[in-house]
Structures are given as structure tokens and as C-alpha cells.
Design goal:
The structure is a homodimer of 231-residue chains.
Chain A (H helix, E strand, L loop, with lengths): L1 E6 L3 H11 L4 E6 L12 E4 L6 H6 L5 E4 L14 E7 L15 E6 L2 H14 L2 E4 L2 H31 L8 H10 L5 H4 L3 H4 L2 H9 L3 H14 L4
Parallel strand pairs in A: 1-2, 1-3, 3-4, 4-5, 6-7
Antiparallel strand pairs in A: 5-6
Chain lengths: 231, 231
């Protein structure tokens, strides 16, 4: 039997709790980060709280092995006295949506091999995609995620803005959006690149710029330059 | 019976030919744009050639109703003497990949109602998503597509670059990329926006900028500003 305590009541904590609960070899308890006085002993304590309270919460935990679940906090930001680790799942968790853990990438880090293997065991019991990622790599991964998630979504918004302004249904663009995302499952983004920028089609680029507002023009120019590698 | 001639031997022309060929009510012929002397008479002639030769090819066609399939060429760029129209499918066509026409948005334009209805009949016989889009709207749609396809793919490339440089598998980001695209099927991009920019989390933004090269920093800053609406 492996005993697990999950600290936190948010989406990550709750989804993890339900997933571990189904595994026969685990005994899992979920506690609120405000009731740390009564924390049970456990083989592993998983802190799933917001980034800015991880240090404080961890400083109050006396259990042997404590990990957090954050993408942007270093392992040594944990302030417990004993062993440390990270159990980071790179995926957005929504409250009401069932999580398919078989598709979630688990990014694991620990101070020693034995602890790493325990994290691996936990991840393997509910998921399939497991990666060893140290704190520096995790930081980089987090900023890469901003590009492919936050910034990509903003480009969708610009597409939507252009449609709205011209009485065009945004639905027309949705199949293209899905295909663009699916394409990189087979092809590297470098090979998947198409469009006027990579063709250096100056006439189309000029025509496009004339159709855009000032802010859109700035973004169009800088991304076109970046595609053309004129840094 | 409706008779159709398709001019061109590229991906769009060939996929369309095969799709129309299966419809009992159509007689369809595909011809090379270099053999326009022998063009058969037809109810509709579809020019599916590259943008810069549409005017020239159309000028040589004597058939009554001529349409092109381009996203970025105006209807009146057609130089045939009689009626004109546009039969534009907003999707990328690859040579070896089967096209699911039921998911392809058809953007149609014609000079009169009867011709428009013929285009609609053609589109309905192989597809489901049909939109009336005039030449100005189609231009705007084309530039919107550059944002959600070409530029989005470039953001994937930046994500991949960051991963490569730090010995991280790009596979870790792929589920997030798929989810980001799927999210806007349910939620507007405006409502789907997350991340440090929209939260105005200055500390994370500063940390991220320190991890990037000059070109990535420029893109990060301009997209962050745009998300924060500081145009």
C-alpha cells in the first residue's frame, strides 16, 4: 500500500484525488490547505495549491516526501525539511470536465532515484505519458506553453475580430483551426509552414496589411519577419 | 443533368473532380489549363489554377458561366465575357489526403440569384457548410486565415524551438495544442483566453522574458500587449 495525501481543494487536487482513489494499491486523503495541523502521515504528500502559497504551505508540512504540481515553481521553492519533488501535469483542468489522464503529460522531478520511481509509479497508475523534467526545463516548458496556448488563442481572437467586423461567421475558420493543430501530429511545425510569409509573396503581404488595423498590422509584420527568419 | 468542366490539374481541381464524379446528376470533365482550345461546352466552368493565372486562363474561356476557386482573387478579376462567380473552399488540400467535404466550408459568390443557386446545388451535393461570401468578405477571410493558420503554426514552431534547445520532447506540448484548438468549438476565443498576460501577472511575464531570445521576446511582448488591449 502507498499512502498519499493531497493538499488543496482546487481542480488539480480534486481530479487527482478521484483518479488515485480508484487505484487499489493506494490510500488517498484530500485535505484543505487551511487545516494542515491535522495532516495524516503519508508516503507522499502532494501540494496542489496556487503558486504563490506553495512555499508557505510546504513549510508547515512535516511528512517525509513532499511534491508540488506547478509548472512555474522550482523544486527547491518547497520549504519542507525533508525530501522534495514535482508532479506536474501539463494540461488545463476544468472543474466540470472529465480528465482523460491517458492523454495528460506527466512531468516528474525528484531529488533521488527512489523518490523519482515512486512518482513514476503514481503517474503510471493513472496515465501513460511520463517525462523526466528538471526545474529549469519545466520553466522553459511553461513559457513554450504560453506561445502554443495563450498566444495561439489570441490569434484565434484576431481571426474572430476580423470576421465579426465584416459580418462573416467565425465558424468558417474553425475547420482550418482544427486542421492546423492536427497537422503537427504528423509534421514538424517547420515543415507544416505555409502562406505568403514563407513564400515571400510580397504582393499578398502588402494587400493583407492594407486590410488590417494598426495593432493587427504590427503583429502581422513581426510574425511575417519571424517566419522569414529576419531576426 | 448539370455539365461541369474543371480547369486545372492541381490538388483542388483533382479533389473536386473526384467528388463531383460520384454525383449522378453531374457530368464532369477535367482539363489542363494548357489545352483550353478544346474546352467542352458546360453549364459551369470551374477554374482551379494558381491565383496569378486566373485572369489569363479565364480570358480564353468562351463558356457562359465561369467561376474560380481562389480565396484572395476578386470575382471581377475573371476576364471571361459572360457570367462570373466564385466557388471557394476554405481548407488546405493535400495531394495524398482524402478530403472530408462534409467539413469543408464553401464560400460562394455569383452575379445573379440563379447562378448562386447553381453554385449552392454543387456545394450541397458534396458538402454541408455553405456560406454566401462576397469578394470583400473573402479578402478579409483570407487574411484572418493567415492569423489562425500560418501564424499559429509559427507559434507552434517557437514552442518546438524552445523545447529542442532544452532537450524537451515537443510531444509534451501536443495535447495542450489540441485542447487549445478544441476549446474554441465551445467558447469564444475571447472567453477562452488564459495566462499571465490576461491576468496581468507582471512577475511571471518578466520571468518569461528572461528565458527567451531577442526575437521571441519581441513576439512575446507584442502579443502580451495585444491581449491586454494596450494598442
Amino acid at each position: 500500500m502507498i499512502s498519499i495525501v493531497i493538499v488543496g481543494k482546487g481542480n488539480v487536487a480534486t481530479h487527482l484525488y478521484h483518479a488515485f482513489f480508484k487505484v487499489d494499491a493506494f490510500i488517498v486523503t484530500q485535505i484543505n490547505s487551511r487545516t494542515l495541523e491535522n495532516i495524516p502521515k503519508a508516503d507522499i504528500t502532494i501540494i496542489a495549491v496556487s503558486d504563490d502559497v506553495i512555499a508557505e504551505v510546504s513549510s508547515k508540512i512535516k511528512n517525509d516526501f513532499v511534491v508540488h504540481t506547478s509548472g512555474s515553481v522550482a523544486m527547491n521553492s518547497l520549504k519542507n525539511k525533508q525530501r522534495k519533488g514535482v508532479f506536474y501535469m501539463l494540461q488545463t483542468f476544468s472543474k466540470d470536465k472529465i480528465v482523460d489522464f491517458s492523454k495528460v503529460p506527466f512531468c516528474l522531478e525528484a531529488e533521488n532515484k527512489q523518490d523519482y520511481q515512486l512518482l513514476e509509479k503514481l503517474a503510471n497508475s493513472i496515465g501513460k505519458k511520463i517525462y523526466s523534467i528538471n526545474s529549469m526545463q519545466r520553466k522553459k516548458l511553461h513559457v513554450a506553453a504560453v506561445f502554443v496556448n495563450n498566444f495561439t488563442n489570441h490569434l484565434y481572437k484576431i481571426g474572430n475580430d476580423i470576421c465579426k467586423k465584416n459580418n462573416i461567421s467565425f465558424d468558417i475558420l474553425k475547420p482550418l483551426i482544427q486542421e492546423t493543430a492536427l497537422k503537427i501530429e504528423q509534421l514538424s511545425p517547420e515543415k507544416a509552414q505555409t502562406g505568403p510569409a514563407i513564400r515571400n509573396d510580397k504582393r499578398t503581404i502588402k494587400n493583407h496589411l492594407n486590410l488590417l488595423d494598426k495593432n493587427q498590422q504590427k503583429i502581422y509584420k513581426i510574425l511575417t519577419k519571424s517566419i522569414q527568419n529576419e531576426n
